Amino acid sequence: QVPHAPSQPLAGSESRRFTNKHSKKALKASLTLGILLGMFFVAWLPFFVTNVAQAVCDCVPAGFFDVLTWLGYCNSTMNPIIYPLFMRDFKRAMGKFLPCCRRSAEPRPSAISLSMRNSNSGPRAATSLKNVL
Fold first, then answer.
1. Is 45 inside any structural domain?
2. Distance (Å, rounded) from C-alpha 68 to C-alpha 12?
3. 74 in a domain, yes or no?
């Protein structure tokens, strides 16, 4: 009998967790891509088919052609709505650069807290202004 090392079951569960995490990310990315491409085809395919038909037989009314063109334009307006719904990184970037999209639970750090964090000094236990003066 060969004794099992205690790290072997942990490595197996870590490997499964790693694979499971990446498979969930891949599934979510595939879903997002499928939704984006599906909406693109639903919005633009009628326009392109009608455009070819118009070139061949000149039988498409101008109003219908305009409606299909605007359907494609509406698809372009849907992309900024779809991306934040499905992509956390995109949502964070929007919140970082657009003040209207920032969450109220995430306050902006003050200059003092940033300098304290970057100075590696941190708060000291017995230091106060009175002790320094």
1. yes
2. 54
3. yes
What is the residue range of 87's domain? Answer: 17-95
User: What is the token pair recorded at 63?
Assistant: 């109003």
Q: CA torsion sign, 92 to 96 to 101 to 105? A: positive
Quick one: which of 118, 119, 121, 97 has its CA closest to 108?
97
Per-residue pLDDT of 40-55, as tens digits, reads 999 999 999 999 999 9
Round to whole Å and give the CA distance between 30 and 34: 6
Q: Is residue 120 part of a domain?
A: no
Q: How many domains is the chain partitioned into structurally?
A: 1
Q: Residue 99 carries which DSSP code?
A: G
Helices (H), 7-133: 7-57, 62-86, 88-97, 111-118, 129-132
Decide: pTM greater than 0.90.
no
- The half-sphere exposure of 60 on its side-chain side, counting CA atoms within 13 A, is 20
Residue 58 belongs to some domain of the structure: yes
